[in-house]
Amino acid sequence: YYSRLTEVQPLTKSSRAQLAMMVISLHRLGLHDCAWRLFDRIAADGLQAGGEAYCNWLLICGATGNIKREIDVWEQMALTSHTRGLQAGVWNCVIIRCLAAGDTKRA
Predict the structure, then answer these.
(1) Which long-range contacts (CB under 8 A, 24 or more apart) does 22-28 make?
(2) 11: which of 1, 5, 15, 44 fits an S-S bond (Cβ 3.0–4.6 Å)?
(3) pLDDT, tens only, 35-47
(4) What is the pTM for the complete model shown?
């Protein structure tokens, strides 16, 4: 699935939509590890997954209380943002969540 999804880079609008639907579907099926495997591959390849997919990964973080993964998502969003303003705003979110988690080293 991943290789087919990422044949064209950067990801097309259709690929980003498919990714978002896959992430939320995996969450609803209780297959969070699979959703995180997709995230890890996207992050390793430095791809911009799209707002809907990031939102779905953040939803999983909220549902599972996984703040480390939440910070990973915010960080990936910042690294792949299309504009400097958005990038700066998302880096602020990374810092705020790191401090809330007591992870001053990562902040």
Answers:
(1) 23/53, 23/56, 23/57, 23/60, 24/56, 24/59, 27/56, 27/59, 27/60, 27/63
(2) 15
(3) 999 999 999 999 9
(4) 0.93
